[in-house]
Model the fold of this input.
Amino acid sequence: MQTVHSIPEMSRLVEAVRCRGKTLGFVPTMGALHEGHLSLVKASVAACDITAVSIFVNPTQFGPGEDLDRYPRDLKGDAGLLEKAGCDFLFTLEKEAMYPQGFQTWVEVEHLPNHLCGISRPSHFRGVATVVTKLFNIVRPHQAFFGWKDAQQALVIRQMTRDLNFPIEIRLIPTIRDSDGLALSSRNRYLTPAQRKAAQTIPKALFKARDFFENGRREAKLLLAELHELFEGLPETQVEYISLVSTSDLEAVDEISKDTMLALAVRVGTTRLIDNYLFAKDESCSE
Ligand code: AMP
Done:
């Protein structure tokens, strides 16, 4: 595996891959890698000749007061994991190289960011769309891999890719969970044992939603009431949102169908956790 620290060097390597007629897969990350990230890398290694992974803690997707400064960083550990997973290029940049002085161009998707996480994080998806656009232009992959764990992000990227005619296939990969059901996340390491226990209510809520649907029940209002009840009185836990939305436009639904997604964001202590459940159980909606 080659570690690349500059945009011109990455462009040169990508050009060489393309000239040789090889396919290039790309996995953008913010590092502090876990098995969730590695499942994306493995999917890319399986589908493409060459795999590039970026590690960049993108300052423009963090709002004021969020955890940018304390976001976990472990480039050396990450490099070891990536090498083992079969990654060919690790691309990492300083923030000054990504956003040089005078930077003033942004990519904004109009509607999808107005829901769910976008309500409490108003500039988040603009930061995500902008950095992913830049990374797509630098890396020029044939396929790019994103996790359903961050479903709204995946939908925003898919929409942006269509709207801006990026010649890139967006591949969406199912969520990898720990043995207690909690979705793997770089932020889980912030949780104390007591908070981790409280956080297990999140996968419990997803299972409850699955059972509700499998029992033939469809009323969104009733399920939402049952789910809110699960979190009542939990120590250090605050629900930001629990929503039942359409996977096409993220608008709230009254009746649950196979196109519905349960999405939730919960703050446990100072850690904000998100998760989701697709009633269709088809997380492989690539295109
Ligand atoms: P991040 O480093 O948090 O920006 O995540 C990089 C990519 O990994 C994103 O596409 C995430 O959706 C994906 N990802 C994060 N956690 C998981 C997980 N538990 N399972 C699958 N993919 C994940």
Notes: The mean pLDDT is 96. The first helix runs from residue 7 to 19. Strands lie at 2-4, 24-29, 50-55, 89-92, 143-147, 169-173, 237-246, 260-268, 271-278.
